[in-house]
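Bug #2210: token dump truncated for Cytochrome c oxidase subunit 8B?
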Amino acid sequence: MPLPTVSRLFRSALRTQLVSVANVTTKPAKHTVTAGEQVIAMTALFVAILGPSGWVLAHLEDYKKKE
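Reproduced locally. Full output below:
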């Protein structure tokens, strides 16, 4: 490839692309979440994530046994 073609390829690759910005607007919440609802949601989240991994770790020796 000739040098001018290569330099044009590099210039086009390095040129910054313009990205349109999303028009995001914020409004006040329609329904406020109470502290009790937050506690219930966080508890459910932690149980869903940590429950299965805790069960696997508790039964790790069972998995190691070859029967």
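Output looks complete on our side. The first helix runs from residue 3 to 14. Marking as cannot-reproduce; reopen if the truncation happens again.
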